[in-house]
Amino acid sequence: MRVIGEPLPNIPWEERPAGCSDVMWRSERNPIIPRDLIPCSNSIFNSAVVPFGDGFAGVFRVDDKARSMRLHAGRSKDGVNWEIEHEPIQFISDDPEIGNFVYGYDPRVCKIEDRYYVTWCNGYHGPTIGMAYTYDFKEFYQMENAFLPYNRNGVLFPRKIRGKYMMLSRPSDTGHTPFGDIFVSESPDLVYWGRHRHVMRPNGGWQATKIGAGPIPIETTEGWLMIYHGVLTSCNGFVYSVGAALLDLDEPWKVMYRTEPYILSPQKLYECVGDVPNVVFPCAALVDAETGRLAMYYGGADTVTCLAFAKVDELVDFIKSNSKL
Ligand code: BMA
Q: What's the pLDDT tens digit per position in 134-176?
């Protein structure tokens, strides 16, 4: 088993704590980003980071004190201590119809070829998938929305597959969506999307109500490693957990394995108590292809940003030996 990608020797990393046998373990420093890191923030969570220069950069979901959902850029030397811009990203757009920013949340960031693409849940007569690109995390150029409303959890693949760009998404509704499957769509140019294929449906237990892709899929010799969130409806509301699947490298709508148990669920206080209790929501993962070390960024209780770790070879083994399709 090998990760196909770049080495990342400066990945933020903590070894599995003694006595822990879980396939994924949390950072001792959680939450790494507190809700009040910048003056305007009510909460900072569900955010996306990538290696950038000699450190890291990212796009952060900041809900402000007016409770508007905004996207802010940020930088870090070590992936743990972040400087987040105090002002939201002002997207550059020459079309006011698209550029009229209503709200934005749950960003993902994906490097493809020469630039970084941002996808997010964008308010355009309801939630849909907004897109932009940046070279420097200073200027962001807004593109066409990928899909019609209503859609959420738009996640790009980091390279073309059989000559086409590919994006996972989760068609939804205007509200808190009590259903949801993952689909994949392809595009020749990142503007026009089609040839939609069904990837995965909810699957009982922690993922009984709906599912949505999380970080950018990670290419391995065993298939695309897709980390995703799954939702259970309890008598007290939704519970968001994390699982993982392996998708076919050339036809990523073909699911080869997916975890029957979750790999992370809300258990720590900062995941169970906050603006929305009982939520772990992953939006990014850093991977060191050389060692297979993986650092996943996730939101805790819609309030703070957290970090968890895994080793890709162990995770792939876990998915295969705990799979239920
Ligand atoms: C989803 C999204 C996420 C959020 C989750 C739990 O619908 O809004 O941003 O983390 O609900 O509230």
A: 999 999 999 999 999 999 999 999 999 999 999 999 999 999 9
Q: Binning pLDDT at 50, 70 and 90, where does residue 313 land?
A: very high
Taking the C-alpha atoms of residue 257 and residue 321, their distance in angstroms, rounded to an integer, is: 9
pLDDT for the residue 97: 93
Residues 6 or more apart whose CB falls under 8 angstroms from that of 94 comprise none
Give residue ranges with CB within 6 A of ligand 1.
46, 105-106, 176, 240, 276, 279, 281, 299, 302
Ligand 1 centroid, distance to 303 Cα (angstroms): 11
Round to whole Å and give the CA distance between 178 and 231: 9
Q: Which of 4, 1, 12 is nearest to 285 (CA)?
A: 12
Calculate mean pLDDT across residues 183-210.
98
113 DSSP 8-state letter: T
The verdict on whether omega for the bond into residue 9 sits within 30 degrees of 0, i.e. cis, is no
C-alpha 299 – ligand 1 centre gap (Å): 9
Atom 1 of ligand 1 has which residue's CA nearest to it?
A: 176
The alpha carbon dihedral of 277, 263, 23, 59 has a sign of: negative
